[in-house]
Design a protein that fits this description.
Distance between the termini: 62 Å
Low-confidence stretches: 183-190
Mean pLDDT: 81
CATH topology of the largest domain: Translation Initiation Factor IF3
Strand order of the largest sheet: 3-4-6-5
Shape: elongated
Helix content: 40-55%
Number of strands: 6
CATH class of the largest domain: Alpha Beta
């Protein structure tokens, strides 16, 4: 079909002529409302982003002369991060005078990595520089799968809670007003107030 005829059909139907497959021979076009297509695409992307789980790299900073209570606190935080499915980074920083006892700092890091060995694996490529030791930890596959499942269950629970609240609004306000009570102010058309000229 010639492009002029397709454009005429689009004007007649008051819709847009959208090129769907430009690389096809001949190119494929469709008659549709382009703004509605963009809206649907943005809505799907927003929904996909909402259901995605963002894995962060959490950092634990240590000193070679760490006290036992502080060590246990940092270890508990590290275990919590790993059980949530996040990656973790242990950074041990030496002061100038502590460099003489480099082996003490390395022992602290080794002790911590062994303490979380049941739930994490050490990522190869940890750095040992002059003043720092950096070790990267990944949660084990079964721990990560469990964290993913908990995240999905939490999303599902939030959706059910949202649907329950909408149902309650529908009971209180009536089914036709439930959506209006839930709609954003920009979606509602503002009616002009009648002027009272005297």
């Amino acid at each position: 079909m010639p492009i002029e005829q397709a454009l005429a059909m689009a004007r007649e139907a008051e819709v847009d002529l959208v090129e769907v497959a430009p690389n096809a021979a001949p190119p494929v076009c469709r008659l549709m409302d382009y703004r509605k297509l963009l809206y649907e695409k943005q809505r799907k992307e927003k929904e996909a982003r909402k259901n995605q789980r963002h894995v962060e790299t959490k950092e634990i900073k240590l000193r070679p002369s760490i006290d036992e209570h502080d060590y246990q606190t940092k270890l508990n935080h590290l275990r919590h991060f790993l059980l949530k499915g996040h990656k973790a980074k242990i950074t041990l920083i030496f002061r100038e005078r502590e460099l003489r006892r480099y082996d003490v700092g390395a022992a602290v890091v080794d002790r911590m990595t062994q303490a979380v060995g049941d739930i994490a694996t050490v990522e190869p490529g940890g750095r040992k520089q002059r003043r720092t030791i950096v070790v990267l930890l990944n949660p084990k596959k079964e721990i990560q799968a469990k964290a993913e499942q908990e995240f999905k269950d939490e999303i599902l629970q939030k959706k059910r809670e949202h649907e329950r609240r909408l149902a309650e609004k529908a009971e209180v306000h009536g089914p036709e007003n439930a959506d209006i009570a839930h709609a954003a102010p920009s979606d509602q058309a503002a009616e002009p107030e009648p002027s009272t000229a005297s």
